[in-house]
Amino acid sequence: xxxxxxxxxxxxxxxxxxxxxxxxxxxxxxxxxxxxxxxxxxxxxxxxxxxxxxxxxxxx
Length: 60
Fold this sequence. Notes:
This protein is mainly alpha-helical. The protein has one helix at residues 2-31. The longest helix is centred in the N-terminal third of the chain and has 30 residues, at 2-31. Residues 1-18 form the signal peptide.
């Protein structure tokens, strides 16, 4: 019976440890400041699609 009690206490302790770790991770993520959403690479805007001197390759 003592082995069963030890197994039960081990399971309860493991569940409590896992729950505490989960709450700790969530608390740590909430405490961290949000990162700015700034792109590392930017590309120039393409020229406006209007009248051009080159023919459209798909119009043939």
